[in-house]
Amino acid sequence: MVKATIASKVLPGFRKSFKKNSLRKNVDFTLLALPAFVLLLFFNFVPMPGITLAFKNYNFVDGIFGSPWIGMKNFHFIFSTPDALLALKNTIVYNAAFIVTGIGGSVILAILLNEILSRGFLKFYQTAIFLPYFLSWTIVAYIVFALLDNSKGMVNSILDVIGMQKVEWYFEPKYWFLINLFLHFWKTMGYATLLNYAYILSIDPSYYEAASIDGANRFQMAMKITIPALRPIILINFLGALGRIFNADFGQFFLVPMESPSLTGVSSVLDTYVYSALRGSADLGMGAAAGLFQSIAGFVLVLAANFIIRYRYGREQAMF
Question: Of the N and C termini of the chain, which has fewer Cβ atoms inside 10 Å?
């Protein structure tokens, strides 16, 4: 009884002191994270009431809250046309290919970077891989145009010099799946590669030393030590990419094809489809419906994949 009385008097004061000291210790980190938190709050949570537009026939006179409710008609309109189904299919196929090539390619490049012994060459390759990440899709679109222009593009000029027939790239849809796949890999690979490389540097070197003593070569070390050690970050990257499988990079699919009508079948994704529909009808309700669908579908996929990962690899490997 005496111990309980003492605890009831001492513990509240101890907890209060602990919280106060913890706040003082983390004040620098709190201030550092504050701008990002404010931006997150402003751009992600403040617009939340706009979700109701997905279920309304919006007009500027009545505003968001005064516009009449129309139920699921916006969703039905989006996914009731062949163009919308084509955009949905392209979005899923492209993102599935991006996930496979992105995760696999970043792991391979990170392992190759780890094999470079010269610090000068290492810095050069890191810069070369990471530089395209900072380029906007507008710049990339003009680089691609300079290469693939039907009349004065560099590629067609080379084909003409060596006696081969020129290709009208912006009128030939069959090439553009691989072109888009390569461009996405080239532009985004640097960031994922450096994340994996940083994770490789944290692996205990004694594992490699023991494997070397046992006679393992570099390929065997990569397969038996490096890749298994990278599994947590690979799974996290996979979950993050899966959550965006219904979202496409608008800049890539709108700017790079230069709005060529011949490439609509391979460049139409949900984001460009909604933009084209809004540009024609200015129906904000339809745009909100598409965005809500993308968010909910991605959220459900992440939950399902995370559950499977927890069941297959354990709780520590899952995101939550």
Answer: N
For residue 64, how far is the Cα from the chain centroid? 30
Which residues, other chains included, contact 285 with Cβ-Cβ below 8 Å and sequence gap of 6+? 53, 54, 55, 56, 57, 58, 67, 70, 74
How far is the C-alpha of 144 from the C-alpha of 134, rounded, in Å? 16
Shared domain for 167 and 267, answered yes or no, is yes
Locate 287 and state its tokens.
């745009």
Residues 256 and 111 in one domain: yes
Q: What is the DSSP string of 246-264?
A: T---HHHHHHTTTT-GGGH
Residue 68 located in a structural domain: no
Domain span including residue 159: 79-282
The sign of the CA dihedral 52, 56, 58, 62 is negative
Q: Which two tokens stand for residue 311?
A: 């069941």
DSSP state of 245: T
Give pLDDT tens digits for 165-176. 989 999 999 999
pTM: 0.81
Band of the pLDDT at 257, cuts 50, 70, 90? very high
On whether the CB atoms of residues 90 and 269 are closer than 8 A, the answer is: yes
Same domain, 111 and 183: yes
